[in-house]
Amino acid sequence: MKFDRLRLNGFKSFVDPTDLVIREGLTGVVGPNGCGKSNLLEALRWVMGENRPTAMRGEGMEDVIFAGTSRRGARAHAEVTLTIDNRERLAPASVNDADGIDIVRRITRDAGSAYRINGKDARARDVQMLFADASTGAHSPALVRQGQISELINARPKSRRRILEEAAGISGLYARRHEAELK
Ligand code: ATP
Ligand code: MG
Predict the structure, then answer these.
(1) Ligand 1 in contact with 31 (CB < 6 A)?
(2) Where do the annotations place ATP binding (predicted)?
(3) Whose CA is nearest to atom 12 of ligand 1?
(4) CA of 34 to the centre of ligand 1 (A)
(5) Is the separation of the CB atoms in 134 and 92 below 8 Å?
(6) Does the Cβ of 162 fall within 6 Å of ligand 1?
(7) CB of 115 sitting under 6 A from ligand 1
(8) Tens digit of each residue's pLDDT (9 = 90 or more) over 155-167
(9) How far is it, in rounded angstroms, from Cα 159 to Cα 151?
């Protein structure tokens, strides 16, 4: 699956609507310290279902909402939309009938997160599974945070195995088996 564009609104420092078109061959985002480069990657993780505040460098999930500055008030919501180019029909069967897939995550203060996949309400689980099968996703080894390499080296065998399973694209299968066993 190919990322096509990322739209942010009220997410961290991206208080105004921002539309990032991810063109073929994009290899880097450059800018001065604090301009929001890491926030962009966090938005990508977040819309794919990341639910650990620490992975978003925050204490609580609502810390992703624009917190306000001396000149601008805080926001009540943050919303990120990820559009996936599905012209090659590589998406899981449940959403594989369209050329593009829009995933929207919105968080409202005191009301938590809501997701939509192509305009339909979805659960966090649905979004996470969509990416788990494609070996991308919030915990994907394709997204390497600062400090993550040393974490991998120092990891216990069990957690290192989880990272390898994620890379091999089989963690979606494990998650489904776990759900089936609970039913
Ligand atoms: P560096 O080059 O140092 O890695 P960067 O381009 O990766 O910098 P980020 O870490 O993405 O920068 O952005 C940090 C900025 O985002 C800081 O100015 C911080 O105040 C701002 N920021 C983070 N969370 C919020 C929030 N909830 N509301 C408003 N601003 C925020
Ligand atoms: Mg950074």
Answers:
(1) yes
(2) 32-39
(3) 34
(4) 5
(5) yes
(6) no
(7) no
(8) 899 988 887 787 7
(9) 10
12 CB less than 6 Å from ligand 1? yes
Which ipTM was obtained for this model?
Answer: 0.98
Domains of the chain: 2-182 (3.40.50.300)
Q: What gap in Å lies between CA 37 and CA 63, rounded to an integer?
A: 17
The residue nearest atom 17 of ligand 1, judged by CA position, is: 34
Annotated binding site for ATP: 32-39
Q: What is the pLDDT of residues 17-76, one digit of tens each?
A: 999 999 999 989 999 999 999 999 999 999 999 998 888 899 999 999 999 999 999 999
Q: Which residue has the tokens 């994620």?
A: 166
